[in-house]
Amino acid sequence: MSNDLRSWFVTFPNEEPVEIMDREVKQLKQSCIPIVKVRWNSRRGPEFTWEREDQMKLKYPHLFDDTSVLR
Q: Pairing state of beta strands 32-42 and 16-27?
């Protein structure tokens, strides 16, 4: 993964995601990567980051259940 893309995907290792706020597709030179805007439950208050959708689905499948507003 390029350094440019890596800077988009920041995680909070001791925090839990609360919900998916938005979806986009990051366009790279030779590929497209679906990303989601995640609201995290942080000790410092709400935090928002863009994460790879495939990685979030693997780690937090409950955020992508049938009752999710964003599809």
A: antiparallel
Sequence spans of domains, the chain: 3-64
Burial of 20 (0-12, 13-18, 19+ CB in 10 A): buried
Alpha-carbon distance values, 66 to 20, 27, 71 (Å): 13, 27, 9
Please tell me the predicted confidence (pLDDT) of residue 45.
78
Tens-place pLDDT, residues 5-18: 444 445 555 678 99
- The CA angle 18-33-7, to the nearest 5 degrees, is 70
Q: Beta partners for 56?
A: none
Residue 4, phi-psi category: left (phi > 0), alpha (psi -120 to 50), beta (remainder):
alpha
List residues bridging with 24 in a β-sheet: 35
